[in-house]
Specification:
By secondary structure, this protein is mainly α. Helix content is about 80%, strand content about 0%. The two termini are about 35 Å apart.
């Protein structure tokens, strides 16, 4: 059985790698969802978008496991405003991701019935707005994490 420090390190590495992978998926979607998308682009975005949900779920599992079983312990995190701000931003990012995911699913279904389908520019602009809002709130997460890790935001 590994010692506490090794367990904490493993959870931290896993958590950070998953977060970077989620950021990569978000960056990919911003780059791929653009005017002039082809059917191939729509299918590719759909496959990658599936990873978005998987990664988000894994981040929650590993993050909460880290908070409970490693790091500073649940008592530290549960009494920290920056922890809850970080969780709140993650939830907002998750909620904002629903619109692009639903749009991509709709586009893929339409493409299945009409191989010449391409999303309209207005729909693409709307999805891109949601993606950029996700980026904004996603960018707050490491700021809150850094403050939290240094003891800011603690309540008693």
């Amino acid at each position: 059985m590994p010692d506490f420090a090794t367990t904490d390190l493993a959870f931290a590495i896993g958590h950070h790698l998953l977060i970077f992978a989620l950021a990569a998926v978000l960056a990919f979607e911003i780059g791929a969802i653009r005017p002039g998308m082809s059917g191939r682009d729509v299918r590719r975005v759909g496959r990658v978008d599936a990873w978005y949900g998987i990664l988000a779920a894994l981040i929650l599992i590993v993050g909460f496991a880290r908070a409970v079983y490693a790091a500073k312990g649940w008592d530290y995190y549960s009494h920290n405003h920056f922890f809850w701000a970080k969780i709140g931003c993650f939830a907002i990012v998750g909620l904002l991701s629903i619109w692009p995911t639903v749009a991509v699913i709709r586009w893929r279904r339409t493409l299945a019935g009409d191989p010449g389908f391409a999303p309209g520019d207005a729909a693409i602009r709307t999805v891109r707005r949601f993606l950029w809002l996700e980026v904004f709130f996603f960018a707050l997460i490491p700021a809150f994490a850094a403050a939290m890790a240094r003891g800011y935001g603690m309540t008693t």
